[in-house]
Structure formats: C-alpha cells, structure tokens
Amino acid sequence: MLGVAQLATACSNSGNAPPVIRIQQNNNAPSAPSSTAPPSGSGFLVPATLEASVAGEQSQFLAAAPAADYDSTDDAAISVSCQSTGTDTFACTGSDTDGDVGSTDDVTVAASGSSWSDSGMTWSGPDVSPPGGFTVAPVSGWTGG
After folding, report:
1. Which of 33, 85, 118, 129 has the fewest CB atoms within 10 Å, i.e. the most exposed one?
2. Across the 145 residues of the chain, what is the mean pLDDT of every consecutive 10-residue run?
C-alpha cells in the first residue's frame, strides 16, 4: 500500500474548524531520476562538427555570389555558432571577420548525424549590397564540411 489516509472528524461541527485530512505517504517508493543525460551524438549532431560544416557551406556559397550582391575583397573568414533547439535541430548564426552577420538559419540534422538541411541564412553588413541582405539558399542533405 503506497499510503494511508487518516480522517479526523467529530460528531458535531458546532463552530469548530472543518475536519482535517492527513495523508501519510510511503517515502520508500522508487522515484524516477531527476534528469537524464542527453544521448551522445555523432557526426553533425556534434555542435562543433555542425558549425564547421555550416561555415563551410556558407563560405562556399558566398564566394560564388555575384560581386553585386556580396563582395568580400579581403576574403573574410566566416564562423558559425549553433545552439541546439531539440534532439536534431539547431539555430545557427554566422559572422565574418570584417563585420558581416548571418541571420538565424534553422538546421535539421539527420538522425544518423550523416547530413543536414537548413532554411537558408541571410547576410548583411559592409560586404553585402542588396538592402534586404544576401540570402544563401536553403540546402537539403548537405554532407560537406
């Protein structure tokens, strides 16, 4: 039996406080762990690996962009930071060494960690000409670095 309830009552309530119910619980019952460790990831499920891959993808597409849209004369190095938003989803943002920034890119990694797909990243800053920024289009099934 997990608990025993005792009820204290009187024959008459004549202005007395209402009956009190006391519950005694069995504190020896097994309890669930307070938290569980997240599953270990592999491949692109490891944030540092994903960040390097997204940075490589962004660099590749920015280098191929028309100079009228994106022109980094000093070939500024790109870095990406990814924050986990779920088991296999990440919000990644980018920046480069001369002041350009990449908006949040929603990335979904395959359960195996072998590939990822994204929503695209829009860049703005001194090397970007279009007023609304330059968008690196979404990719699907990306496996490169």
Report:
1. 33
2. 38 47 43 39 94 97 95 94 97 97 98 97 97 97 92
